[in-house]
Amino acid sequence: MDACILLGKCLTDSVAVRALAVLADGPLCICEIQSAMQLPERRIQLSLDRLRGAGLVLSERRGRWMSYSLNSEREPFLSSLMADLSDELEWDMQLTLARKRLNLVLKRRVAGWCPPSPADLNLSVSAT
């Protein structure tokens, strides 16, 4: 019963629904999702935690980054859900903009992962 309630909460959370839609194209780092959705990382994290609790999303830590992907074991359900929501999502301007921003973000990926910051590369940035 708890899983059903959590699923209901996910479906009433517009950020969670949009996150499902952007994750449909493949795994993403939290920073990539945040860059695409232009929302505070904490807000996105709360929605992703709900989705993970409902078993719809998986997470994987890679060093300092957290990667999220759709749970392939729930593929039939997720495919059906996204098909049912497709008409609504097609007209969602925030999702349309998020997908456009995501395309730009993905072009900056380094070795298949989100762009590292200078701190992650142990490089110092000097103000000159």
Compact summary:
The protein has 128 residues and is mostly helical.
Task: Please explain how this structure is put together.
The chain has 128 residues and is mainly α. The protein has one domain: Winged helix-like DNA-binding domain superfamily/Winged helix DNA-binding domain (Arc Repressor Mutant, subunit A), CATH 1.10.10. It is built from six helices and three strands. The termini are far apart.
Mean of pLDDT: 82
Structural class by sheet pairing and helices: mainly alpha
Q: Order of strands in the sheet with the most strands? A: 1-3-2
- What is the overall shape? globular
| Share of helix, binned | 55-70%
CATH topology: Arc Repressor Mutant, subunit A
Compute the number of structural domains.
1
> What is the H/E order?
HHEHHEEHH
Strand content: 5-15%
| CATH architect. name | Orthogonal Bundle
Number of helices: 6
Biggest pleated sheet: 3 strands, antiparallel
The parts where pLDDT drops under 50 for at least 5 residues are 118-128
Distance between the termini: 59 Å
Q: Assign the CATH superfamily.
A: Winged helix-like DNA-binding domain superfamily/Winged helix DNA-binding domain
Q: What would you report as the Rg, rounded to the nearest angstrom?
A: 16 Å
**CATH level 1 name:** Mainly Alpha
How would you describe the oligomerization state of the chains in this entry? single chain
The strand count comes to 3
Q: Keyphrases for this structure?
A:
single chain; 128 residues; mainly alpha; Arc Repressor Mutant, subunit A; 3-stranded antiparallel sheet; 6 helices; 3 strands; 11% strand; globular; disordered C terminus
